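hey so u asked for the seq, here:
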Amino acid sequence: MQIEIEYCVPCGYLDRALEAQKTLLSTFGQGLEGVTLKPGEKGVFTFRADGDEIYSKPADYDITTIVETVKARL
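ran it, C-alpha cells below
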C-alpha cells in the first residue's frame, strides 16, 4: 500500500506531515510500499491510501484513527 500525505506548505503543516510519515513507517514498516509527502497549498492536509482519501482537513486530525484505518486496509 502506498500512502500519500498532501500538506499545505504556506500553512506550516510540514512538521505534522513528517510526524505522521514517521509514525506510519515505524508502525507498519515494510508492510507499506512507501509514505510520500506532496507539497500543496490552500490549507490542504489530506491522506490517501492507494489513491483513496482516508483523511482530509477540516476533520479532526487524529493520527491514531489514521493508523487504524491503514491497519484495516492492510
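The longest helix spans residues 14-28. The mean pLDDT is 97.
lmk if thats what u needed
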